[in-house]
Amino acid sequence: MTVTGDVPQALLDTWRAAVAAARGGAVYRALADAIAADIAAARLAPGASLPPQRRLAWTLDTAIATVTRAYADLSARGLITAETGRGTRVGRRRRADDGVIAPRLEPATRDAGSRRRPQPRAAAGEDGRMSMAADAHAEGAAGPIDLSPIDLSPIDLSPIDLSLAQPADPAAAAALARTLTAMAGSDGLLASLLAYQPARGAARHRAAGRQWLGRGGWLPDPERLTVTAGAQHALVVALAAVAAPGDSIAVECLANPSILAAVRFRGVRLKPLPIDAEGADPAALDRMAAEDGRLRAAILQPSLHNPTGAIMSPARRAMLAQVVTNRGLLLIEDDVHAPLGLPGALPAPVAALIPDSTVLIGSPSKVLGPGLRTGWLAAPASLDDRISAALWASAWMAPPLGAEVVSRWIADGMAASLTASARAANIRRRELLARRLPGLDMTRDRACAQAWIRLPDDWDPDRFADAAEAAGVRVAPARAFTVAPTPVPVAARISLAAAPDDAVFLQALDRLAALLGAREPHGRTRPIA
């Protein structure tokens, strides 16, 4: 790294002026804002190296603590990253329509004629075929699925988006058509759904949430349930109820990007917890609470952690409950992926152990479809006023139309049927993944809707994601899940559920296999422990 990294002298002069103008005020914020403006304007490119803190402090004639705080602020905004051996660099800019955050409305166009792609290769010893049972809900599917390697060089298909963990079962759309028809024939129902609802949702919609969230012989108290506009809305409401800007929130060092976005939007500091095969470490949370007097809560995913698929054992859940209680914290338990777990395999939520210290969040989006925008949170009575205020300020009420559809599907068994189908599809596609990309799947549980893929050490995850998109497949690079200062793993996440059928999923896997087989070194990124 040079004295100034990849920063032109003109930008350093601008930063020096910003620091000088802010003397006596929040100098670090002025510096952070100046750097952020240059990143936003593309005057600093993704991957550009920034000067070491001590050198930049000397160059700008300011204290090293100022630079340290400015870099920390930029890291919290997701604009820069710091990695051992690579220094501090500008992060990969993500568009508002990036598949890791939200689906794109229109597929990107590509010029197939100007690009030659390597041919996919079957794994040694394979004949390129595998017989798979047809999905219980697939229409017109019969016979074995052709797993022969696909020649991709002469064709140009729209990108296959495996960056989003969303279901793609056509049976859900067919069920929706039937349900809407039935609802239209119900006297007065549609008119009631157009009216304002009770602040916490209609009683029947809350009852459906109680059934959806219940597990392991436990059911939440129906009086503690609130209907929300999806799990993300529930998360924002919960954060508003438990933490103020400047407070700290503990999260897994690898966490769902939507969690990270909600925390940053709230202006709360992210504090990463180490994870292992069972997820977050309760002892680390205990130490963090002892050291940080502004730690208010932890947002954790004890069941089918995204992206690793880790599941907390009953013993670890008990340890976590003890730490949360002893330290006077609140736990925001993200239980969204739990319905996809194998029947009887998941323990009851941590909320069953400490309901007065837990905000439990659930949603059917990963099974029934995210467009229904329905979720629930179960929270302690002590948070009633703050949750009501946050709900009113953010959405007034949850959309009742989606909640009515979901409630009917839970009552008539359609939700259970779609859940079983989604689970079976995820397990089936994981088997396909093991054949096409052998030895790369690090996911802890085979029922997960996503796969956490170990990349060869000579790939940088961001560059792999860019190369994969150029080859026609969108994946989510590890950086999207990594909470600074955690080193970014040499990994990526792919959704098993997003492809419309197995054939398209196999096309995507063949493209990735070809890419990995023809890769060129791109530098190293230190893996996570």
Automatic annotation (TrEMBL):
SMART domains: HTH_GNTR. PROSITE patterns: HTH_GNTR. It holds the Pfam family GntR. Residues 90-131 are annotated as: Disordered. Residues 25-93 form the HTH gntR-type domain. Signal peptide: none annotated. SUPFAM superfamilies: PLP-dependent transferases, Winged helix' DNA-binding domain. Keywords: DNA-binding, Pyridoxal phosphate, Transcription, Transcription regulation. In the C-terminal section; belongs to the class-I pyridoxal-phosphate-dependent aminotransferase family. This is GntR family transcriptional regulator.
